[in-house]
Amino acid sequence: MKYKYEVALSFAGENRDFAESIATSLQAEDIEIFYDEFNSADLWGADLPVKLREVYFADSRYCLIILSDHYVQKMWPNWERRNAMERLIKESGDPYILPVRLNGFSGDVPGLPDTIGYLSAESHEPEKIVEVFLQKIGKGKRNRAGDLDESSFSPPYIPRLKKSFSDQEKSRFLKKSFTEITSSIRGFAEATKNKCSGFDYEVEKITARKELFTLYNEGNILTKLKIWINGGTETDEIWMLHGTRIDVSEDKETNEMIYVEQYEGELKLKPMGMLSYGSSMNFMSPQQTADYIWRAICSEFSY
């Protein structure tokens, strides 16, 4: 059977450096790989729960899961693993999931059987996983001349160089992040609807830069969430406002402002922390920002 991807990576954001090293090395070996930053065009504007199910249930020959304490606590990795497990069951136990225990992680992983074969690796050993994966698919590693290199030597450490981003790059990142955040919140709402019989929601796309979510319980409004790109300052920001009464035409009030900043050579999102009562916020990915927003608004009515 011909698969779209030879392997799909599933990992927590905290382990991105390790995952990215694996993805980059496999890509250099002409391996078709699903790694979110390589596939940003496919994910942009997609219904993420549906798209990720296709990737982890049907489109990949293997699913390489990087297990850590962070992994078992995250929503999207859990969604990816759930669909990968369905595929494993469908394949009647044929090898599909390739788990890697990172930095000595030995905890239980819901749904993943203890009898499945694991590899162990430290954060500085991504090439160890690359080499074993290439052996598994019967592909030798190439040397610089393009010939097969039987020695499979480890490359030297390659430092991550500082990079400056233009205003255009920051603007594009902000717009892409807005799309990913609103799509993720839709996914959270849909997952809640499937779990809670009285819960429902509506989404109104006001403009390409503004959306309104309304959450209901038994037909009564729990809260509304307006999220938009605010262009009233020198640089655009993502603003949000939640409450039972929201004026979609008036964009002067906000519960949270989210900026684009450069962090360790990448563009990241940085909330002010207004939803967490002024607490210092970490740099976040769009998915982490969506999770932060969703948890904050749900804390108003959940128990």
Number of strands: 11
Strand content: 15-25%
Rg from Cα: 21 Å
Q: What's the SSE pattern? A: EHEHHEHEEHHEEEEEEH
Strand order of the largest sheet: 6-7-8-9-10-11
Unreliably modeled segments: 143-148
Largest sheet: 6 strands, antiparallel
Q: Categorize the overall geometry.
A: globular
Through-space gap between termini? 48 Å
Mean pLDDT: 87
Number of helices: 7
Helical residue percent? 25-40%
Content-based structural category: alpha/beta
Question: In terms of topology, how is this protein built?
Answer:
Layout: E1 5-10, H1 16-28, E2 33-34, H2 40-43, H3 48-59, E3 60-67, H4 75-90, E4 97-102, E5 119-121, H5 126-136, H6 167-195, E6 199-207, E7 210-217, E8 220-230, E9 237-243, E10 256-263, E11 266-271, H7 286-298
Parallel strand pairs: 1-2, 1-3, 3-4, 4-5
Antiparallel strand pairs: 6-7, 7-8, 8-9, 9-10, 10-11
Helix pairs in contact: 1-5, 3-4, 6-7
What does this structure look like?
The chain is α/β, with parallel strands linked by helices. It has helices spanning 16-28, 40-43, 48-59, 75-90, 126-136, 167-195, 286-298; strands at 5-10, 33-34, 60-67, 97-102, 119-121, 199-207, 210-217, 220-230, 237-243, 256-263, 266-271. A hairpin with a 6-residue loop joins strand 8 and strand 9. The chain is globular.
